Amino acid sequence: AAEWERFRDWSAGSGRHNVRAGEALPLGVTSSFQHWDPWPITITSARGAHLTDVDGNRLLDLSMGFGAMLVGHLNPVVVDAVKHALDEIGTLFVTPSSQATDMAERFKTRFGLDMLRFTNSGTESLMYAIRSARAFTGRKAIIKIEGGYHGGYDPLQVSVKPGLDEIGPADNPTPATPFDVEAGTVHVVAYNDLGQLERVLSAHGTQIACLVVEPVIENLAIVLPDEGYLAGVRRLCDDHGVVLIFDEVKTGLTAGHGGASRRLGVKPDLVTLAKSIGGGLPLAAFGGKRDVMEVVVDGRMAHFGTYNGNALCMAAAEAVDELCTHEALAAAEQVNLGALEAIDTVIDEYELPAHTVGVGLKGCVTWSTSPVRNYRDYKATDFGVAELSWLWGVNRGILTPPGLDEQWLVSLAHTTTDMDQLVGDVRELAKALRG
Ligand code: PLP
C-alpha cells in the first residue's frame, strides 16, 4: 500500500493526463497493453536508454518499447537515415522501390529466408503467415501454444493467458474460443510437451495447416525450450506436412544476429518478425521457405498493404541492420549476462524464492524456485511479489515492462552502469523483503 501511495504521488501528472486521455481514447491509451492501474506513465520524450514523463521524472527504460527500441531511443544513425529519406527519397510510393528490395536482400541473408514480404505490425505478419500456410496446405486448422500471445488476429486470441479454471486438465487443454473462431479450428498444446503435440497431430494432422510457436516464449516472462524440444517440433511438423511458424516478433534481433531460430539451430518454414527490426518505426515481415512463399507468386494467396515497405521504415531498418553487427549484439549480451549473474548473487544471498532467466539481450526474474517450462508452471509463480518488484523499481526510476509477463531489454544504448542500477534496486528490494 505504501508503494502504491508513493507511485500516485510522483506520477500525479500522469494520472491527470490519463483522465483527459480517457475522454478521447478508450482507457486513455492507444493499445490495451499500455493501460495499467491506477494509470500508465505518460511519456513526453525519450533518448538513449531514458524516458522523461509529464511530471518531469527521468526513468531508466528497461522496457524499450517491448524490445522495439533495440538500438536505443533517437539513435543518431536511425534518425539520420529517416531524415535523409524525408529530405531526399520520399515517404510512400505504392510502386516498388529499390530500398525495399535492398532491405529484403539483407533480411534474407541475416535470417536465412528464401523470400519475405514486409508488413506494418506483428499482428499482420502472423495473420499472413497463417493464411500462407492455409493456402499452401489446403488445410484450415492451426495449433498454438497454451497461454501464448501472438497479436490480435482472431484465431490467435484463443488461449491467451487464460484463467486456470477455463482451460481443463493439463494433459488435454480445452481452448476457450473467443470472437470469430470456428470451433475445432484452433488446437492448443503445452509448450515443451512433445507427447501432447504428437497426440494432437495423430488425431487431427490431416486438417492442420500450421503450428505457431515463439521459439523462446517471451510473453510469459521468458520460458526457454527444453533441450531437443524445437528439433522435436520440427520433426513432428515434417511428419504431418504441417507448416512450422516461428513467431520471432519478440525474439528477433534481441535473441541474436539471426534471431532465435539461428541461435537455437532449428529452421522453421515461416518466420514472423517485427519490433526490433524497425528501430521504433512500424515495420514487420513474414517470410521463409520458397515453396511456401510461392503461394503469393502463384495467386493462391494475395498479400496487401498500402504502407508495406515504405521508404521511412526501410531507411530505419537499414540503419538498424548496420548497427546490429555480431560485435554490437555480443557486447550488449555481455552486459545482460553480467546483470543476470549479479542478480543471481543477490537471490542467493537473500535466499529469495526466485531465479533469473535470460536469452540474448533480454532477461527477467521469475518468482519461483522451480523452473518454468510452460504456461501452467508460469501461472504457479508468485505474481504478488512480481508486481511489488515492478512497482518498487518504477518508484525508484526504473521502468521495467509494466506487464508482469514481460522482460527487460539491454539495448545498444544501455551501459553496465545502467544495469548496475537495476541490480542495486533488486538488492534494496531483497533487503526490504527480508527485513
Ligand atoms: N507476436 C508476439 C510474440 C508478440 O509479442 C506480439 C506483440 O507483442 C505480436 C505478435 C503482435 O505484434 P504487434 O503488436 O506489432 O501487432
Automatic annotation (TrEMBL):
It is an enzyme of class 5 (isomerase). One of its GO terms (molecular function) is glutamate-1-semialdehyde 2,1-aminomutase activity. Its EC number is 5.4.3.8. Gene3D superfamilies: Aspartate Aminotransferase, domain 1, Type I PLP-dependent aspartate aminotransferase-like (Major domain). Its cofactor is pyridoxal 5'-phosphate. The keyword RNA-binding does not apply. InterPro entries: Aminotrans_3 (IPR005814), Aminotrans_3_PPA_site (IPR049704), PyrdxlP-dep_Trfase (IPR015424), PyrdxlP-dep_Trfase_major (IPR015421), PyrdxlP-dep_Trfase_small (IPR015422). It holds the Pfam family Aminotran_3. Keywords: Aminotransferase, Isomerase, Pyridoxal phosphate, Transferase. Coiled coil: none annotated. PROSITE patterns: AA_TRANSFER_CLASS_3. SUPFAM superfamilies: PLP-dependent transferases. Belongs to the class-III pyridoxal-phosphate-dependent aminotransferase family. This is Glutamate-1-semialdehyde 2,1-aminomutase (GSA) (Glutamate-1-semialdehyde aminotransferase)(GSA-AT). The lineage of its organism: Bacteria, Bacillati, Actinomycetota, Actinomycetes, Micrococcales.
